[in-house]
Backbone:
């Protein structure tokens, strides 16, 4: 059983202190879900990724969830503190906008 997602991102989670990679997540929009955990059209943010097989367009998480990747995706680097925004449904473009807004206010 697997979840098929589109408009997906491999999220590289970074430590804000030293930009060290802490792990990777998958974020995307549900196209279909054999597991009946997610509704079509809703976002999903996975647990930590265990395996990425781009030849098979398959991601397996540490909790053994399987995600089939539909279409082309992207990579996005997020700081650990931003992961909670991804969990709440913010997409990477919205996080970039929040970063820019914060930078303007910090000046």
Residues:
């Amino acid at each position: 059983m697997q979840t098929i997602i589109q408009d997906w991102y491999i999220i590289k989670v970074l430590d804000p202190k030293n930009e060290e990679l802490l792990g990777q997540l998958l974020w995307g929009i549900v196209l279909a879900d054999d597991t009946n955990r997610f509704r079509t059209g809703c976002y999903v943010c996975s647990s930590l990724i265990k395996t990425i097989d781009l030849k098979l367009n398959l991601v397996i998480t540490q909790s053994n969830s399987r995600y089939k990747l539909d279409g082309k995706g992207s990579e996005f680097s997020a700081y650990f503190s931003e992961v909670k925004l991804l969990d709440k449904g913010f997409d990477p473009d919205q996080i970039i906008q929040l970063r820019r807004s914060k930078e303007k206010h910090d000046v």
Remarks:
- The beta strands are 3-14, 21-33, 43-45, 49-53, 58-61, 66-69, 74-79.
- DSSP finds two helices and seven strands in the chain.
- The chain has a mean pLDDT of 93.
